[in-house]
Each structure stands twice: as structure tokens, then as C-alpha cells.
Design brief:
Helix content is 22%, strand content 31%. It is of the alpha/beta class and 404 residues long. The chain has three domains: 179 residues, FAD/NAD(P)-binding domain (3-Layer(bba) Sandwich); 123 residues, FAD/NAD(P)-binding domain (3-Layer(bba) Sandwich); 67 residues, 2-Layer Sandwich (Enolase-like, domain 1), CATH 3.30.390.30. It has a five-stranded parallel β-sheet, covered by helices on one side. Strand 4 and strand 5 form a beta hairpin. The longest helix is centred in the C-terminal third of the chain and has 15 residues. It is globular, with a radius of gyration of 22 Å. The model has no long low-confidence stretch (mean pLDDT 96). The structure holds flavin-adenine dinucleotide. The site of flavin-adenine dinucleotide has 36 residues, from helix 1, strand 4, helix 7 and strand 22.
């Protein structure tokens, strides 16, 4: 029987296991993850989970699912290396090192939090947030902190800042760029979020580099920003993530801002595929290869791969979508905004939400919505069908969003 080994315990790995089970994949499936928990939802880590000491592990599927589907879970087990010639993995677990053979290997290794050179993961006083274990550490530390300093005004940094503020903390966010989320969202959304977070009482300092950390007896007790010391009871580094390509690169697979795959998630080695945050992949709507960090991308790439492994190959063409909850603001994005798009503002027909639609000529390329889920979903359906609304109609909330 074919043995398919999935390396990773995140959204992509869990979805692949589920899709293979759904399609009655005939081989044996083994999922190897270095995390101690069964695969869980990562988004709540920066939102609900760090607020609630009672919050349980947000499992993607219960243990019974894996058992019933006959999927073997090897948790707390790290893959150290891939021997492509022998089709074997070197594993490390608390029981020691061992070997696992594969006929097909899937790398779903995700992304790793980018580390501050002066405060690697584990530095007392500095928190990173990528895993459930890190979320638990942050949840335990937050009650004792009065002043929280967040490094990075990206999605995770802003979500944690909003959550910490809701818990009554004094919060300062340092962002090196002149606007929030500069690479991911349009200026209209950056401005809105800046205003919203400042109104909530978060001190956001744009265009400010953190030069270093203030250390006392091995513990970070503040940061130095623009030459000034800023004290902190707790520092959170939310300075982005990098694709986890170590295994792939060491095994000689092509990596370029991610493990390079084709439209069916195949690497250059016919026995190895890759899915999720760790991949760099082609997409028909964009000229350059993409690398995305989103639940949608992890799930849809897993479904694309499951289809190929079950003999129904199809290219990956899913329209990207994403969400981020920041305090009272629910941001939803479909498509990818790029500078140069023509932007159309559309107030929500009810409430104080709004959307910004981004066009390339007459083609709708992206929609960013704040507390406007109806318009977001309508535009997402249009984009998935390759359709676009008329720009003048799009600006008028009295007209529903439909194809021109
Ligand atoms: C705090 C936080 C909030 C987020 N919020 C949102 C959101 O609101 N909306 C959204 O769309 N996305 C959000 N994301 C992003 C989303 O969680 C990721 O895009 C998604 O988890 C990607 O899934 P993945 O399976 O590719 O990678 P991951 O979920 O990162 O999983 C990778 C897995 O591989 C394991 N692994 C890596 N190397 C090895 C090895 N050598 N041996 C064994 N195991 C290994 C890792 O431990 C991990 O379990 C958030 C992410 C974080 C961290």
C-alpha cells in the first residue's frame, strides 16, 4: 500500500488529510507534526484565545476523525531531514531518532515567525505568536503586564494590540513603514485602521524603527526607539513570518521565497509535493509567483493536491481571500490589491461599514471590506465567476453588487 507522509500539523496538513479521507484515498496516510497538539485553528491565537484563560484548544477536527479515517498522527515529532534517493525521513521525537519511509511526501511546513536578531525566540520578556504553546505563554503573561509594546503593525501585531487594549492594557505599536499594513492593504484601509486603533487608545508610532532592546538581568524590559527608551512589561514581536523551507532546501528542492511548486502543487521531485504558507506558486491572475499566508490558501491548495493524488488533477486557480479581526473591526479581503489599481469607495447599505473595490481597467481585482460582509461576499462571488460590477454602480450602496 502506498504510504503518503504529510510533514506539518497546520491548516494545510489537516485539510489534506480530510480531503484524502473524503476521496477515499487508497494509501496509508501518516501526519508528522513537531507540535504536541492535533491540528488546530491558528487565527484565534491572536484574537479570542489570548483573552480567555478557559479557552480550549480550537481543534480543526477531533481526534476521533483521524482515528476513524485511519490517519496515523505522529505528534511532537520533528522531521530532521529528507533522503530523496532512499525516500526516507529522519525523525526526532522524545523517544529518540528514527526513520520513516514514504512513497509520496507532502511538505506542509508553513511559516515561521521572523525573529529579532537581538531577541531570538525564548528571550525572557519577548513573545512571539505562531503556535498554541506560544499563545498559552502570552495568555499567562498578559494579566501581569500593564504596558505592552508591540513591534510591527502587521495583521498579527495589530490583532494582538487590539486584544491587549480590550483587556485594559496600555499599548504602544511601533511600525517602521509610514503606514500600517503597507504591503498588504490599500492606503484607505491603513488610514481607517490607524484611526480606529488610535481612537481605542492604542499609541501607534509609524515610521519608527526600534533600534534595540533594553535588557536587565537577561530580561527585556523595554525597547529603544528613535534613540528614546520606552519601558515595557511585555514585548510582542509581530515582525512577519518567513516560509519554512529548511527541509526542502537541504534536500535540494528549488526554493525561492517558498518551496517552488507548479499549479498542481508538485515540486521538481515527482515524489514530493508542497502546500500552504511554505509554497511559492503560479496563479493565472498574477504574472509573478505568489506566496500567501492565509487559511483559504492552505485549504484550497490541500484540496488541489488531494485531487491530483486521487487521479483528478486540476490547476490551482482559487481567488485568494483573507480576514482579520481587530477589535470591533472585521476586515475581509478578496483578491490582491496592488498600487496602481483604481479604487472605488462603497459605503455599506446598513451600519457604518464600507468596502473599497479595486479595478484594473474594468476588471475587479480586489475588494477590502470593513464590517460589510454582504458586499464582501457578493464581490467574492463575482470574482470567483470572473465577473466585475460597473464602477458607478459599485460606488452606490443602493445598487446590489452584480455583474456589469
Ligand atoms: C496568530 C495568527 C493569526 C492568524 N490569523 C489569520 C486570519 O485571521 N485569517 C487567515 O486567513 N489567516 C490567519 N493566519 C495565517 C494562517 O494561520 C496560516 O496561513 C495557516 O496556518 C497556514 O497553514 P499551513 O498549514 O500552511 O502552515 P502552519 O499552520 O504554519 O503549519 C505548519 C506546521 O508544520 C509544522 N512543521 C514545520 N516544520 C516541521 C518539521 N520539520 N517537522 C514536523 N513538523 C513541522 C509546524 O509546527 C506546523 O504545525 C494567522 C496566523 C497566525 C500565526
Amino acid at each position: 500500500m502506498t504510504r503518503l507522509v504529510i510533514v506539518g500539523g497546520g491548516h494545510a496538513a489537516a485539510q489534506l488529510a480530510a480531503s484524502l479521507a473524503e476521496k477515499r484515498f487508497s494509501g496509508q496516510v501518516v501526519l508528522v507534526s513537531d507540535e504536541a497538539q492535533i491540528p488546530y485553528h491558528r487565527p484565534p491565537l491572536s484574537k479570542t484565545l489570548i483573552k480567555d484563560p478557559e479557552a480550549p484548544l480550537p481543534e480543526l477536527r477531533g481526534a476521533a476523525f483521524y482515528e476513524q479515517a485511519g490517519i496515523e498522527l505522529r505528534l511532537g515529532t520533528r522531521v530532521l531531514s529528507i533522503d530523496r534517493a532512499r525516500k526516507a525521513l529522519r525523525l526526532s521525537s522524545p523517544e529518540g531518532e528514527s526513520e520513516l519511509a514514504y512513497e509520496h511526501l507532502v511538505l506542509a511546513t508553513g511559516a515561521k515567525a521572523r525573529e529579532l536578531p537581538q531577541a531570538p525566540i525564548g528571550t525572557p520578556g519577548v513573545h512571539y505568536l505562531r503556535t498554541y504553546a506560544q499563545a498559552q505563554a502570552l495568555r499567562d503573561a498578559l494579566p501581569q503586564a500593564r504596558r505592552v509594546v508591540v513591534l510591527g503593525g502587521g495583521f498579527i501585531g495589530l490583532e494582538i494590540a487590539a486584544t491587549a487594549r480590550q483587556l485594559g492594557k496600555e499599548v504602544v505599536v511601533f511600525e517602521a513603514m509610514p503606514r500600517l499594513l503597507a504591503r498588504a492593504v490599500s492606503p484607505a484601509i491603513s488610514d481607517f485602521l490607524l484611526e480606529t486603533h488610535r481612537q481605542a487608545g492604542i499609541d501607534i508610532r509609524l515610521g519608527t524603527m526600534v533600534d534595540g532592546l533594553d535588557m536587565a538581568q537577561g530580561r527585556a524590559i523595554g525597547v529603544i526607539a528613535g534613540g528614546e527608551p520606552v519601558p515595557a512589561d511585555l514585548i510582542i514581536a509581530g515582525i512577519g513570518a518567513t516560509p519554512d523551507v529548511e527541509l526542502a532546501r537541504d534536500a535540494g528542492l528549488d526554493c525561492d521565497n517558498g518551496i517552488v511548486v507548479d499549479a498542481t502543487m508538485a515540486t521538481g521531485d515527482p515524489a514530493i509535493s508542497a502546500i500552504g504558507d511554505c509554497t511559492s506558486f503560479p496563479h493565472p491572475a498574477w504574472p509573478q509567483p505568489l506566496r500567501l499566508e492565509s487559511v483559504q490558501n492552505a485549504n484550497d491548495q490541500a484540496k488541489t493536491l488531494a485531487a491530483r493524488l486521487c487521479g483528478e488533477p486540476q490547476p490551482y486557480t482559487a481567488v485568494p481571500w483573507f480576514w482579520s479581526d481587530q477589535g470591533e473591526a472585521r476586515l475581509q479581503i478578496t483578491g490582491l490589491w496592488r498600487p496602481g489599481h483604481e479604487s472605488v469607495l462603497r459605503p455599506a447599505s446598513r451600519g457604518n461599514g464600507f468596502s473599497v473595490l479595486h479595478f484594473d481597467g474594468v476588471q475587479l481585482r480586489a475588494i477590502e471590506s470593513v464590517n460589510s460582509p454582504v458586499d464582501q461576499m457578493a464581490a467574492r462571488r463575482l470574482m470567483q465567476a470572473g465577473q466585475s460590477p460597473d464602477k458607478a454602480m459599485a460606488a452606490d450602496p443602493a445598487h446590489p453588487l452584480k455583474a456589469a
